[in-house]
Amino acid sequence: MASKYLLVVIALLVLACGADAQSRRKWGLVKVDSTLAARYYRMGDIDTAYISRPKTKLTVTARMNVSGAKIEAEGIDEGQHFKSEIEANRKATLSVGVSYLGFSLSAALNPAKLMGKYHDYELNFNSYGKRFGFDVIYQDAKNFTGWHDHQGMERIELPDGMLAVKTLNVNAYYVFNSRRFSYPAAFSHSYIQRRSAGSFLLAASGQGQHATLDWQETMQLKMTNIGLGAGYGYNYVPGQGWLLHISALPTFIAYSKTSMSFGDTNIPLHYHFPEVIITGRGSIVRQWGNKFVGMSMVYNFTNIGSENSLAVHNTKWRIRTFFGLRL
Looking at the chain, which runs of residues are DSSP E strands? Predict the structure, then answer.
């Protein structure tokens, strides 16, 4: 009989301990959630007449992204003018993002890649903060097509697969008027711009590229560029629920190392002012109730060299349409 009572007591203690552990876990999650919420809603040095946080904790966003890239080269070779233009196939992806109290996670799907029609690789990573933010874009592409004109020669068509390009673009910004101007309101939607405001911006940009062309003889282009500059951004609120953003961040190249080789011949590209990396951004957002919809754009342009010897222009762009729910 005593053993039966002992078993009952042990069972009750186990149940009590389990309930207590569950209660502690629940309390711990509640504490973490309240800490994150307090951090998320702490506005700090912000004019709430211009910027506010959404009242909800969770945001779910569906996106469609379309991106492209183009490289142009122009110069003089032994007194003869030449020009080349090559462009990558456009890439389209579908993605879903979830953000909870400022922490975000997203997954993307490329339908063409799943069907075997697209074999390139591209990575886009961005972070838009109220004072500081950046974009990182890496592309490994072999689907460039284009043409090459050389004085005294017929145009040469460059089919898919002849050119392989690896490119890394990085651009960052710092906002001076973060009290009233919000980059996240236009791009990550973690803030809401309530009244029109603008800001001067500091900017830094970097680009690394390695291109290989298998033609009559192998041609390689290698470049590394770092630029510093400043720009301006403006959030225009024409009416309740609307936001139009535009910003331009030109940076002048402070460090450049570029070379081109044809077979065993190396041709260095000497610095020629002005060499620039320009980042442009734009966005249109319409929100009503707990919903928002819109479109955004990021544009990168790099100009190096001189057309009297060799100039190279790089263009990289991405357009995103989105629809979101705040829950």
Answer: 51-52, 58-77, 80-88, 91-100, 103-109, 121-128, 132-141, 144-150, 156-158, 163-175, 192-193, 197-214, 218-236, 242-262, 265-268, 276-288, 291-306, 310-326
DSSP, res 116: T
> Which pLDDT score, from 0 to 100, does residue 164 have?
86
| β partners of residue 117 | none
Structural tokens at position 26: 């629940």
Neighbours of 292 (CB within 10 A): 21
Threshold 0.85, pTM exceeds:
no
Assign 3-class secondary structure to 142-180: CCEEEEEEECCCCCEEECCCCEEEEEEEEEEEEECCCCC
Torsion sign (Cα): 115, 117, 123, 125? negative
